[in-house]
Amino acid sequence: MDYQGIEKRRFVRAKFPCCITIHTLHDHIITTYTENISAGGVRVIIEEKLEMASTVGLEIQINKNIIVCKGRIVWVVDRESPYKKGVLYHDTGIEFYEIKESDRCIIHDAIDEILKGEK
């Protein structure tokens, strides 16, 4: 079940599965796809549980652009896999920081295009 609380987002988000590489503090690399993205952060579902408030390096491919920035883990929700009983995945929210304003604009423009296509 998805979170049903009050939305406190500053940025519009869109369901957009783009490739993302997460570099953890322990030099571990996680490659996955985003569940959704905004100019302020991303949501991913991963096998590894990352520590709240920890920082990660991010590489996000949006169309032909590679955005490199840092992120902070702001929430983690454990979810059981619908395919494998007893296997947990971690629904994880990552807030961008140390991101170039030009990269934030690339994300914003991509989201605008997605949302225009949904209308």
Would you give an account of this structure?
The protein has a single domain, classed as Thrombin, subunit H (Beta Barrel). The chain has 1 helix and 7 strands, in the order βββββββα. The chain has a 6-stranded antiparallel barrel with strand order 2-3-4-7-6-5.
Characteristic key phrases:
119 residues; alpha+beta; Thrombin, subunit H; six-stranded antiparallel beta barrel; disordered N terminus
Summarize the structure.
By secondary structure, this protein is of the alpha+beta class. The protein has one helix spanning 101-118; strands spanning 13-14, 19-23, 29-38, 41-46, 55-62, 65-80, 88-97. A hairpin with a 7-residue loop joins strand 6 and strand 7.
Strand content: over 45%
Mean pLDDT, to the nearest integer, reads 88
CATH class: Mainly Beta
pLDDT < 50 runs, ≥5 residues: 1-7
Distance between the termini: 26 Å
The amount of helix comes to 10-25%
SS field, number of helical segments: 1
Structural class: alpha+beta
List SSEs in N-to-C order. EEEEEEEH
Radius of gyration: 14 Å
Total domain modules: 1
| CATH fold node name | Thrombin, subunit H
Q: What CATH architecture would you give?
A: Beta Barrel
- State the major sheet: 6 strands, antiparallel, barrel
